[in-house]
Each structure stands twice: as structure tokens, then as C-alpha cells.
Amino acid sequence: MARSLELYLLACDPYLSALFPEREAEARAALEMLSSVSFVIISGAYFDAKTLESQALLSILEEELAAGDLSMLLQKVLDITTRTFQASMGALLLREAESSSLKVSSSVGLHVKLPEDFRIAIGSGFAGKIAASGEPGMVLDTSAEGGMFTPIIRTGAKSLWGVPLKANGQSIGVLVIGFHKPYEWLPAERELMRAIGDRTALAIERARMTDALRQREQKIAELSAHLLRVQEEERKRISRELHDETGQALMVIRLYLGMMESGITKRNARGKIRETVEVVDRTIEGIRRIIGKLSPLVLQELGLIAAIRKEAKGLAKTTGVKTRVLITHEVGRLAPGTEQAIYRVVQEALHNVAKHAQARNVSVQITREEQKVQVVVEDDGIGIQTRGSSHDRSFGLAGIKERIAMLGGVARVISAKGKGTRIEITVPAGEPAPSVEHPPARAAAHAAARPN
Ligand SMILES: Nc1ncnc2c1ncn2[C@@H]1O[C@H](COP(=O)(O)OP(=O)(O)OP(=O)(O)O)[C@@H](O)[C@H]1O
Ligand SMILES: [Mg+2]
């Protein structure tokens, strides 16, 4: 622009002395002044247009990031576009999956409600043609173009501007805005509309992908919650069977052996029976341990604190790791699901200490603040080593996170090489189950499974 003003001045120069022989200097000054003023005004207008353009694009980008879902995003894009061009109406039409028609997904300034089944075939009508060609389109006077527009559009707008929404070279929709008066676009406006269309198409694709991912994630979370419940049920069933069937049978065998032992006088035979009784006792003890792990009766009977102390004691006994359990008395009883999850988390964390940590000390701390329970299991071992392929097949830590997320809590694993591992979870305490007396039959059966 500066160059064209310069050329203009150069072109005028030879005529100045002829036209204004007496006041040539004044005429030259006036011309220069005119040139500077034009420069300032045109640059200002150019700057304003650019500012408007960047503002529109920036606000679409912001909305894209902030929009909760696709429909909200579409509405925002329409608001911004109609505001930017001071249009009286706007509509966003999207191509329906696996079809060759466009559906109005969002609109502003359309005072008549479109019928639910209103569709525009790609290739026909104003929007349909833009979608088919992939090029912007403009109609100056809708009333002059008769059959191309429905009466709703014809009464709603005199001029229409439209751009395709293109993603990966394909038209996924059309953005249309309309004006009450005939209004032709400038090349810059057409380019800005096109840029908005491109930006919107990208945002729509991204929002669709995020929506699909969100749905998938939710499905996976539901599935793993279901699997965890099924696993817990299955463990309970197996433990019940072991307890009621195998445990009882072993008790009967033990009883008969005892009776035989007292009735037999031969020393050799008595010795063999004693040995057999000892094997049966050890088997009963082993089965009790399995039952305890599968479905911690102690959790139901004595509560979380006793169950966790028992786990910690077991770890100390089998590995020699020094264990410390600190559970403040405010913790009290929690919702059964919460107690079970905490128990399983501590169980997995302690198993990991035994399996991987090479720790000397481990502590389990449970505290409660109002409705929030915090559990921390911390060891002073080697820490979680950098991720390797074996982690892909490890489910313990992932299971911890899943269980806790199911209850609306959060789980964090903090670990550094050589600096031990700390697992922190926070879960809502929930409502404890009303205390019920154990039915005598179950209590008796449980007692029976214990060796003397
Ligand atoms: N306390 C710990 N100290 C050191 N490394 C640990 C500790 N806990 C976990 N790890 C590391 O993190 C990995 C993942 O643990 P995770 O419990 O998920 O799986 P896993 O114990 O290997 O298998 P499983 O699925 O049977 O639990 C482990 O393989 C181990 O390398
Ligand atoms: Mg593990």
C-alpha cells in the first residue's frame, strides 16, 4: 500500500507545476498530507480487520479448548461467527455418519423451528452445493434464487454466505450465515470465513474423537468395575466352599483319626496316626490361610484394623520385613465396600513389598478426617524401577487405582529409585453396615474349620 501511494505521488508530480503554477509547493504539501492520511486510515482499517480476524479465530480456539461437548462447541462457533460479521442468522450443518445428507446441528437467529427430519442432500441447495464442491459460496438475494431455498431461509435472510467444514479433504459440514440486507463479502471476509470453517472442522473432529475416547474410557471403567465385583464374588464363593465343604471334611477326618488313635494300642500304628493328624492339622491351617486371603472373614467379623494387622504380621513372618501399623481410632467402621477395597489395596501393596521392594521397613497408616479416609503404605526399599516391558503385564497397581476410582477416591503411587515406594489413597468413608449378629450356623462352621 505504501508503495502504491508512492507511485501515485510520482505519477502526479509532473503535472503539479502545470496545474498549480503559483502554488506548486502548497499543492505538493497537500498531496503529501493526503497520502499520509490515506496511509494512516487504510493501515488502521487493515489493522482492525486483522484484529477482528485474530480475535474470531482466537475465541474459536479458546472455545474449542473450553467446550464441554460437541453441541456446546457448535453453538459457540455460531455465536462468534455471527457476532464477527454482524450477521442476523447462522446455521451449522453437519454431514450425518454414513449418509449423503446434511442436518442442521446448531442454529442462531432462525425464528422458525425446523422440522426434526429436515435434511439437505449433498449436492443440492445452497449448503448442499458447498458441501459437494468444498468451496465457499455466496448468494446476494435469496428471493431471486427461488427453488434453491426453503421459505424459512428465504424469509430469514436476504444474503447468505457459506463455507465448507473440511477435515482430511472431506466436507464434514457447512457453516452458513445470513444477513437481512443484500451484503456481498470482501475477499478478506471470505478468507476469514474460510479460516473459521477450517478451524471449526478441526475442532469438531477433535471433539468427536474426545467424545469417542471418553465413551470408551467409561466403558472400560465399567467393565473393570464389573470384573472386580465378579472376582470378589467368585473369591467369596470359593472360600465358602473351601470352608463349608473341604474344611468340614478335614475336621471329620481329624475327629475319626483322634478316635482311632485312642482305640489303638499298637505303638507303631499310633505313631502313624499321630503323624497323619499332624498332616491334617497343617492342611486345615493352610486352607484357613487360603480362605482368609480369598475372602477375609476376619474383615467381616473383626473389622479392617484386625484384618490389616493380620496381613502385616503375615508379611513380617514370611519375609522378616519390619512392619508398623498405625490406625487412628477415628477411623472406626466404614462402608463394607470401602473396607474391602482398603483391605485389598493394603494386601496388594504388602505383596508388592514382599515381591519387589527388598525393604527393611514398611508402614501402614490409616487416618480419617470427617468423611475422608487416607491410607498410606510406605516402604524403604529399592523403589519402582524404570518402566520395562514386564509392567505391561502387571495389574496390581492398576487394580488399586481402579478399585479406588470406583469408590470415587484417588490413588497415587510415589516412588523413586533407591528411595522406597509410597502408595497413598483417599476414599470416602461411606456408611458402615448396621452390625448384625453372625448366624449361629456360620459362626459354628467357622469355628469348626479352626484346628485346635
Ligand atoms: N513396593 C515396591 N517396591 C519396588 N518395586 C515395586 C513395588 N511395587 C511395585 N513395584 C514395581 O512395579 C511393578 C508393577 O507392580 P504391580 O503390583 O502392578 O505388578 P506385579 O506385582 O509385578 O504383578 P501383579 O499383577 O501380580 O501385581 C512391579 O513389577 C515392580 O517392578
Ligand atoms: Mg503386584
Which features characterize this protein?
452 residues, alpha+beta, Beta-Lactamase, Heat Shock Protein 90, five-stranded mixed beta sheet, 12 helices, elongated, binds adenosine-5'-triphosphate, binds magnesium ion
Describe the structure.
With 452 residues, the protein is an alpha+beta fold. It folds into 3 domains: 48 residues; 146 residues, Beta-Lactamase (2-Layer Sandwich), CATH 3.30.450.40; 151 residues, Histidine kinase-like ATPase, C-terminal domain (Heat Shock Protein 90). It is built from 12 helices and 11 strands. The protein has a 6-stranded antiparallel sheet, with helices on both faces. The protein has a 5-stranded mixed sheet with strand order 7-8-9-11-10, with helices on one face. A hairpin with a 5-residue loop joins strand 1 and strand 2. Helix 6 runs antiparallel to helix 7 and helix 10 packs antiparallel against helix 11. The longest helix has 77 residues. The radius of gyration is 39 Å and the shape is elongated. The relative contact order is 0.06. The C terminus is likely disordered.
The top-level CATH class of the largest domain is Alpha Beta
Low-confidence stretches: 438-452
CATH topology of the largest domain: Heat Shock Protein 90
Helix content: 55-70%
Named once each, the bound ligands are: adenosine-5'-triphosphate, magnesium ion
> What is the typical, i.e. mean, pLDDT?
85
Name of the CATH architecture of the largest domain: 2-Layer Sandwich
SSE run: HHHEEEHEHEEHHHHEHEEHEEH
Q: What is the number of helices? A: 12
Quick one: overall form? elongated
Secondary structural class: alpha+beta
Q: What order do the strands of the largest sheet run in, or round the barrel if closed?
A: 3-2-1-6-5-4
Number of structural domains: 3
Q: N- to C-terminal separation? A: 103 Å
